[in-house]
Specification:
CATH class of the largest domain: Mainly Beta
Distance between the termini: 57 Å
Low-confidence stretches: 1-26
CATH topology of the largest domain: Immunoglobulin-like
Protein backbone atom coordinates (compact mmCIF):
# COMPACT_ATOMS: atom_id res chain seq x y z
CA UNK A 1 0.00 0.00 0.00
CA UNK A 2 1.45 3.31 -1.09
CA UNK A 3 0.56 5.21 2.04
CA UNK A 4 1.28 8.86 2.34
CA UNK A 5 4.63 9.66 3.94
CA UNK A 6 4.42 12.24 6.67
CA UNK A 7 5.35 15.61 5.26
CA UNK A 8 8.55 17.16 6.54
CA UNK A 9 8.36 20.40 8.44
CA UNK A 10 9.69 23.24 6.34
CA UNK A 11 10.72 26.68 7.49
CA UNK A 12 7.69 28.73 6.56
CA UNK A 13 4.38 27.86 5.00
CA UNK A 14 3.10 29.92 2.10
CA UNK A 15 0.12 31.21 4.01
CA UNK A 16 2.41 33.10 6.37
CA UNK A 17 5.36 33.36 4.02
CA UNK A 18 5.51 37.06 3.02
CA UNK A 19 7.75 38.40 0.29
CA UNK A 20 8.49 41.89 -0.94
CA UNK A 21 6.35 42.18 -4.06
CA UNK A 22 7.21 44.27 -7.13
CA UNK A 23 5.33 47.42 -6.13
CA UNK A 24 6.92 47.47 -2.66
CA UNK A 25 3.80 45.89 -1.23
CA UNK A 26 3.86 42.84 0.98
CA UNK A 27 2.14 39.85 -0.56
CA UNK A 28 1.24 36.47 0.83
CA UNK A 29 0.35 33.58 -1.43
CA UNK A 30 -2.86 31.78 -2.11
CA UNK A 31 -3.81 29.26 -4.77
CA UNK A 32 -6.34 27.44 -6.89
CA UNK A 33 -6.60 23.67 -7.21
CA UNK A 34 -8.37 22.06 -10.18
CA UNK A 35 -9.04 18.38 -10.85
CA UNK A 36 -9.75 16.73 -14.22
CA UNK A 37 -12.23 15.11 -14.46
CA UNK A 38 -14.22 16.69 -11.65
CA UNK A 39 -15.77 13.32 -10.73
CA UNK A 40 -13.17 10.62 -11.43
CA UNK A 41 -13.59 6.85 -11.19
CA UNK A 42 -11.48 4.55 -9.04
CA UNK A 43 -8.23 3.81 -10.86
CA UNK A 44 -8.75 6.48 -13.51
CA UNK A 45 -5.83 8.80 -14.26
CA UNK A 46 -6.82 12.12 -12.70
CA UNK A 47 -4.90 15.34 -13.25
CA UNK A 48 -4.31 17.76 -10.37
CA UNK A 49 -3.46 21.34 -11.36
CA UNK A 50 -2.19 24.00 -8.95
CA UNK A 51 -2.02 27.72 -9.74
CA UNK A 52 -0.43 29.94 -7.05
CA UNK A 53 -1.13 33.67 -6.75
CA UNK A 54 0.22 36.64 -4.82
CA UNK A 55 -2.52 38.38 -2.86
CA UNK A 56 -2.88 42.15 -2.85
CA UNK A 57 -5.56 44.35 -1.32
CA UNK A 58 -7.64 44.50 -4.49
CA UNK A 59 -6.45 41.68 -6.74
CA UNK A 60 -4.42 38.49 -7.17
CA UNK A 61 -1.42 38.08 -9.47
CA UNK A 62 0.03 34.82 -10.90
CA UNK A 63 3.05 33.76 -8.82
CA UNK A 64 6.10 31.89 -10.08
CA UNK A 65 7.96 29.76 -7.51
CA UNK A 66 11.39 28.10 -7.78
CA UNK A 67 11.44 24.73 -9.51
CA UNK A 68 12.53 23.01 -6.28
CA UNK A 69 9.88 24.57 -4.05
CA UNK A 70 8.49 21.84 -1.72
CA UNK A 71 4.83 21.70 -2.78
CA UNK A 72 2.62 19.44 -0.64
CA UNK A 73 -0.59 18.24 -2.27
CA UNK A 74 -2.66 15.70 -0.37
CA UNK A 75 -5.64 13.43 -1.03
CA UNK A 76 -7.50 12.02 1.98
CA UNK A 77 -9.70 8.94 1.70
CA UNK A 78 -13.22 8.89 3.16
CA UNK A 79 -11.65 7.24 6.26
CA UNK A 80 -8.96 9.90 6.58
CA UNK A 81 -5.92 8.04 5.19
CA UNK A 82 -3.57 10.46 3.43
CA UNK A 83 -1.79 10.09 0.08
CA UNK A 84 0.68 12.42 -1.56
CA UNK A 85 0.08 13.79 -5.05
CA UNK A 86 3.35 14.67 -6.76
CA UNK A 87 3.23 17.84 -8.85
CA UNK A 88 5.78 19.79 -10.85
CA UNK A 89 5.96 22.80 -13.13
CA UNK A 90 4.48 22.38 -16.56
CA UNK A 91 6.83 22.81 -19.49
CA UNK A 92 4.91 25.64 -21.19
CA UNK A 93 3.65 27.60 -18.18
CA UNK A 94 5.94 29.18 -15.56
CA UNK A 95 2.96 29.72 -13.23
CA UNK A 96 1.28 26.31 -13.38
CA UNK A 97 2.03 22.97 -11.72
CA UNK A 98 0.41 19.62 -12.35
CA UNK A 99 0.57 15.92 -11.58
CA UNK A 100 -1.54 12.79 -11.85
CA UNK A 101 -3.14 10.53 -9.29
CA UNK A 102 -5.33 7.42 -9.20
CA UNK A 103 -7.98 7.29 -6.49
CA UNK A 104 -8.03 3.93 -4.71
CA UNK A 105 -11.60 3.72 -3.40
CA UNK A 106 -15.02 5.23 -4.13
CA UNK A 107 -16.69 7.79 -1.91
CA UNK A 108 -16.02 11.36 -0.85
CA UNK A 109 -12.34 12.26 -0.72
CA UNK A 110 -10.86 15.54 0.56
CA UNK A 111 -8.03 17.18 -1.37
CA UNK A 112 -5.94 20.30 -0.84
CA UNK A 113 -2.56 21.97 -1.17
CA UNK A 114 -1.18 21.80 2.38
CA UNK A 115 1.19 24.72 1.80
CA UNK A 116 -1.78 27.09 1.99
CA UNK A 117 -2.57 26.48 5.66
CA UNK A 118 -0.89 27.26 8.95
CA UNK A 119 0.00 23.63 9.77
CA UNK A 120 1.13 22.02 6.49
CA UNK A 121 1.21 18.41 7.68
CA UNK A 122 -0.78 15.39 6.60
CA UNK A 123 -1.76 14.66 10.19
CA UNK A 124 -3.49 18.07 10.30
CA UNK A 125 -5.75 17.23 7.36
CA UNK A 126 -7.10 19.92 5.04
CA UNK A 127 -7.97 23.00 7.06
CA UNK A 128 -11.43 24.48 6.58
CA UNK A 129 -9.67 27.81 5.92
CA UNK A 130 -7.48 26.34 3.18
CA UNK A 131 -8.51 28.04 -0.11
CA UNK A 132 -7.74 24.89 -2.10
CA UNK A 133 -9.74 22.47 0.08
CA UNK A 134 -12.30 20.44 -1.90
CA UNK A 135 -14.60 17.51 -1.30
CA UNK A 136 -14.43 15.22 -4.31
CA UNK A 137 -16.86 12.44 -5.14
CA UNK A 138 -15.06 9.41 -6.58
CA UNK A 139 -17.13 6.94 -8.62
CA UNK A 140 -16.78 3.15 -8.52
CA UNK A 141 -14.22 1.70 -10.93
CA UNK A 142 -16.77 0.47 -13.47
CA UNK A 143 -19.36 3.24 -13.13
CA UNK A 144 -20.94 4.24 -16.39
CA UNK A 145 -19.94 7.67 -17.69
CA UNK A 146 -20.99 9.79 -20.66
CA UNK A 147 -19.02 11.11 -23.62
CA UNK A 148 -18.69 14.41 -21.77
CA UNK A 149 -16.70 12.68 -19.02
CA UNK A 150 -13.93 11.81 -21.47
CA UNK A 151 -13.71 15.40 -22.70
CA UNK A 152 -13.70 16.67 -19.10
CA UNK A 153 -10.63 14.50 -18.42
CA UNK A 154 -8.55 16.87 -20.54
CA UNK A 155 -6.90 19.50 -18.33
CA UNK A 156 -7.13 23.15 -19.28
CA UNK A 157 -3.95 24.09 -21.13
CA UNK A 158 -4.46 27.82 -20.62
CA UNK A 159 -1.12 29.32 -19.50
CA UNK A 160 -0.64 32.00 -16.87
CA UNK A 161 0.28 35.55 -17.83
CA UNK A 162 2.12 38.11 -15.72
CA UNK A 163 -0.01 41.09 -14.72
CA UNK A 164 0.60 43.94 -17.17
CA UNK A 165 1.76 41.76 -20.05
CA UNK A 166 -0.03 42.14 -23.37
CA UNK A 167 -2.89 39.70 -23.88
CA UNK A 168 -1.85 37.24 -26.66
CA UNK A 169 -5.24 37.34 -28.37
CA UNK A 170 -6.20 34.81 -31.06
CA UNK A 171 -5.98 35.88 -34.68
CA UNK A 172 -8.95 35.86 -36.99
CA UNK A 173 -8.97 32.81 -39.30
CA UNK A 174 -11.53 34.08 -41.81
CA UNK A 175 -15.29 34.50 -41.67
CA UNK A 176 -17.90 32.04 -40.44
CA UNK A 177 -19.47 31.53 -43.87
CA UNK A 178 -16.42 29.42 -44.78
CA UNK A 179 -17.53 26.91 -42.13
CA UNK A 180 -21.08 26.70 -43.45
CA UNK A 181 -22.50 29.08 -40.84
CA UNK A 182 -25.73 30.72 -41.95
CA UNK A 183 -27.11 34.26 -41.62
CA UNK A 184 -27.02 36.35 -39.55
CA UNK A 185 -23.61 35.06 -38.41
CA UNK A 186 -22.09 34.19 -41.80
CA UNK A 187 -20.14 37.46 -42.05
CA UNK A 188 -18.84 37.36 -38.47
CA UNK A 189 -15.10 36.81 -37.81
CA UNK A 190 -13.96 33.24 -37.20
CA UNK A 191 -11.80 33.36 -34.07
CA UNK A 192 -9.67 30.23 -33.72
CA UNK A 193 -9.26 27.13 -35.87
CA UNK A 194 -12.78 25.79 -35.36
CA UNK A 195 -15.03 23.95 -35.76
CA UNK A 196 -16.79 25.81 -32.88
CA UNK A 197 -16.84 29.61 -32.72
CA UNK A 198 -18.25 32.31 -30.39
CA UNK A 199 -20.08 35.24 -31.97
CA UNK A 200 -19.73 37.94 -29.28
CA UNK A 201 -16.04 38.80 -29.62
CA UNK A 202 -16.56 41.76 -31.93
CA UNK A 203 -15.65 42.41 -35.55
CA UNK A 204 -11.90 42.82 -35.06
CA UNK A 205 -9.10 43.42 -35.40
CA UNK A 206 -8.69 41.65 -32.03
CA UNK A 207 -11.24 39.55 -30.13
CA UNK A 208 -12.89 41.67 -27.45
CA UNK A 209 -15.79 40.74 -25.18
CA UNK A 210 -17.53 43.61 -23.41
CA UNK A 211 -19.75 42.61 -20.54
CA UNK A 212 -22.15 43.99 -17.95
CA UNK A 213 -20.75 44.16 -14.41
CA UNK A 214 -21.94 44.36 -11.73
CA UNK A 215 -25.37 42.95 -12.57
CA UNK A 216 -27.91 45.75 -12.87
CA UNK A 217 -30.59 46.06 -10.17
CA UNK A 218 -33.69 44.22 -11.28
CA UNK A 219 -31.86 42.16 -13.91
CA UNK A 220 -32.12 38.37 -14.02
CA UNK A 221 -28.47 38.22 -12.87
CA UNK A 222 -28.95 40.42 -9.80
CA UNK A 223 -27.51 38.78 -6.69
CA UNK A 224 -25.48 36.19 -8.59
CA UNK A 225 -22.15 37.98 -8.30
CA UNK A 226 -21.56 37.33 -12.01
CA UNK A 227 -21.92 39.74 -14.90
CA UNK A 228 -21.77 38.72 -18.53
CA UNK A 229 -23.29 39.02 -21.95
CA UNK A 230 -25.12 36.96 -24.55
CA UNK A 231 -22.63 34.92 -26.59
CA UNK A 232 -24.18 32.61 -29.17
CA UNK A 233 -21.97 29.73 -30.36
CA UNK A 234 -21.94 28.11 -33.79
CA UNK A 235 -20.42 24.81 -34.96
CA UNK A 236 -19.28 24.11 -38.52
CA UNK A 237 -21.50 21.99 -40.74
CA UNK A 238 -18.58 19.59 -41.29
CA UNK A 239 -18.42 18.46 -37.64
CA UNK A 240 -20.82 16.03 -36.01
CA UNK A 241 -20.28 15.36 -32.34
CA UNK A 242 -19.86 16.88 -28.89
CA UNK A 243 -18.00 20.12 -28.17
CA UNK A 244 -16.98 21.09 -24.62
CA UNK A 245 -16.17 24.76 -23.92
CA UNK A 246 -14.45 25.84 -20.69
CA UNK A 247 -12.32 28.84 -19.82
CA UNK A 248 -10.44 30.98 -17.33
CA UNK A 249 -8.35 34.11 -16.91
CA UNK A 250 -4.69 34.13 -17.95
CA UNK A 251 -3.59 37.12 -15.85
CA UNK A 252 -5.64 36.39 -12.75
CA UNK A 253 -7.58 33.75 -10.80
CA UNK A 254 -11.06 34.08 -12.30
CA UNK A 255 -13.12 31.42 -14.07
CA UNK A 256 -15.27 31.79 -17.13
CA UNK A 257 -18.81 30.51 -16.56
CA UNK A 258 -21.70 29.78 -18.88
CA UNK A 259 -25.42 29.50 -19.32
CA UNK A 260 -26.69 27.22 -22.07
CA UNK A 261 -29.90 28.15 -23.84
CA UNK A 262 -30.43 24.57 -24.93
CA UNK A 263 -32.92 23.35 -23.79
CA UNK A 264 -33.53 26.71 -22.07
CA UNK A 265 -32.22 29.28 -19.61
CA UNK A 266 -33.26 28.74 -15.98
CA UNK A 267 -33.23 30.76 -12.77
CA UNK A 268 -30.82 28.21 -11.31
CA UNK A 269 -28.16 28.73 -13.99
CA UNK A 270 -28.67 32.49 -14.00
CA UNK A 271 -27.77 32.58 -10.30
CA UNK A 272 -25.21 29.76 -10.46
CA UNK A 273 -23.65 29.66 -13.94
CA UNK A 274 -21.84 26.50 -15.00
CA UNK A 275 -18.12 25.88 -15.48
CA UNK A 276 -18.67 24.42 -18.94
CA UNK A 277 -20.80 24.79 -22.04
CA UNK A 278 -21.87 21.67 -23.93
CA UNK A 279 -22.56 21.96 -27.64
CA UNK A 280 -23.49 19.44 -30.33
CA UNK A 281 -22.35 19.92 -33.92
CA UNK A 282 -23.31 20.84 -36.47
CA UNK A 283 -24.96 24.02 -35.23
CA UNK A 284 -25.07 26.49 -38.13
CA UNK A 285 -27.97 28.63 -36.83
CA UNK A 286 -26.48 29.29 -33.39
CA UNK A 287 -26.72 27.78 -29.91
CA UNK A 288 -28.09 30.40 -27.46
CA UNK A 289 -25.69 30.92 -24.55
CA UNK A 290 -24.23 33.52 -22.22
CA UNK A 291 -20.64 34.02 -21.08
CA UNK A 292 -20.43 35.02 -17.40
CA UNK A 293 -17.51 36.97 -15.93
CA UNK A 294 -16.83 39.07 -12.85
CA UNK A 295 -13.58 40.87 -13.67
CA UNK A 296 -11.90 42.37 -16.74
CA UNK A 297 -8.67 40.91 -18.06
CA UNK A 298 -7.16 38.46 -20.51
CA UNK A 299 -9.17 35.24 -20.87
CA UNK A 300 -9.33 32.12 -23.00
CA UNK A 301 -11.96 29.65 -24.05
CA UNK A 302 -10.67 26.07 -24.38
CA UNK A 303 -12.67 24.17 -26.98
CA UNK A 304 -12.48 20.36 -26.90
CA UNK A 305 -13.98 17.78 -29.23
CA UNK A 306 -13.36 14.21 -30.22
CA UNK A 307 -10.24 14.98 -32.29
CA UNK A 308 -9.35 18.58 -31.46
CA UNK A 309 -8.47 20.98 -28.66
CA UNK A 310 -7.71 24.65 -29.14
CA UNK A 311 -7.77 28.02 -27.38
CA UNK A 312 -9.52 31.27 -28.22
CA UNK A 313 -7.74 34.02 -26.27
CA UNK A 314 -9.61 37.30 -25.89
CA UNK A 315 -9.68 40.49 -23.89
CA UNK A 316 -12.65 41.19 -21.60
CA UNK A 317 -13.71 44.72 -20.66
CA UNK A 318 -16.57 46.01 -18.53
CA UNK A 319 -19.07 47.98 -20.60
CA UNK A 320 -18.53 51.71 -20.24
CA UNK A 321 -15.22 51.34 -18.40
Amino acid sequence: MLCFVRFAIFAATIIVFALAAPRAAIAAATGRLSVYPAQPRVGEVTTFEVRPFWTYVDHLEPAAFPDDYPWRVAAFTPRGHAYAVAIRKTADDPYGLSGTFRFRSPGTWTICVLNFQTFPYARSGCSIANPTRQRLGVLPRYAGVSTWHYLERRPLHIPGLATGEACPTTEQSGVLAASGIEAPFDSFPAWGSGPAFPTALGRGPRPLLTFEYPPLPGSVWEGSGWGGRKNIWVVADSYRGPVLVRGRQLDGPNDVRFENGRPGFTDATRQHPRLELRLLGPETHGNPATTRLRAPGCYAFQVDGAVFSYLIVFEARIEGA
